[in-house]
Write a structure and sequence with these properties.
Strand order of the largest sheet: 2-1-3
Distance between the termini: 38 Å
Number of helices: 12
Strand content: 5-15%
Shape: globular
Helix content: 40-55%
């Protein structure tokens, strides 16, 4: 796919998706997907702010390398391929093709978004510290909130994510879970602050099938500075 294929597609999408034969929700989502593509035309695997071994012993270098360079990269690759197909369907006015791409876009787009947020909310254990501030104040009983989020995350059936989100309507923090790669904001309306990946590929090398040990250990490598910055931004 050339860099020109996706750039500026918001305008083309808006023009080609006006047909009354296309359900409104699919027209809007297709236009949003195309117009949100990076300026270079393709989404890219983000670099990490730390080495693969930096999160040991909580997460091994082997797991990090596989998770980031293989699994996350697959979501990025498939998202770009899906956008190329969507662009072709939009240009051709192919209603069936547009509708048929929605599942792949949600899954791979969500996978890319969720993992990007995940890497950013982790850091080496030596840098993980929850300081006094707006986040800690809003959390209230920190240990109780951690326990609640851990329990909900461990209980996710199959594959999915545990989240700490911010509810803009109430001004409160909420614990939520999402199946598969469903994005938190699109699914619940909550602003994602902290995510825990509980797909088995995130922990099987290190913890086998004992998800509780992984979830309980990950609190030692949470980048609380990033979580607080997300909260402050969400409160604006």
């Amino acid at each position: 796919m050339s860099g020109k294929l996706i750039v500026g597609q918001g305008l083309r999408a808006a023009a080609n998706l006006r047909s009354s034969s296309i359900p409104t929700e699919f027209a809007k989502s297709s236009a949003a997907f195309l117009s949100a593509a990076p300026s270079g035309g393709k989404h890219a695997l983000p670099d990490l702010a730390y080495d693969y071994a930096a999160l040991e012993p909580v997460i091994s270098a082997e797991t990090m390398e596989i998770h980031h360079s293989k699994h996350h990269n697959t979501y990025v690759t498939n998202l770009n391929a899906s956008l190329e197909k969507l662009d072709a369907a939009v240009s051709a006015g192919d209603v069936s093709g547009i509708i048929g791409m929605q599942g792949a876009l949600k899954f791979n787009g969500g996978g890319h978004l969720n993992h990007t947020l995940f890497w950013e909310n982790l850091c080496p254990a030596s840098e993980s510290k929850l300081n006094d501030g707006p986040l800690k104040s809003l959390m209230g009983d920190v240990d109780a909130l951690k326990a609640k989020m851990s329990a909900s995350t461990i209980a996710v059936q199959g594959s999915g994510w545990g989240w700490l989100g911010y509810n803009k309507s109430t001004g409160l923090l909420e614990v939520a879970t999402c199946a598969n790669q469903d994005p938190l904001a699109a699914t619940t309306g909550l602003v994602p602050l902290l995510g825990i990946d509980v797909w088995e590929h995130a922990y099987y090398v290190d913890y086998r099938n004992v998800r509780p040990n992984y979830v309980n250990a990950i609190w030692d490598i949470v980048n609380w500075d990033t979580v607080e910055k997300r909260l402050i931004e969400a409160q604006k």
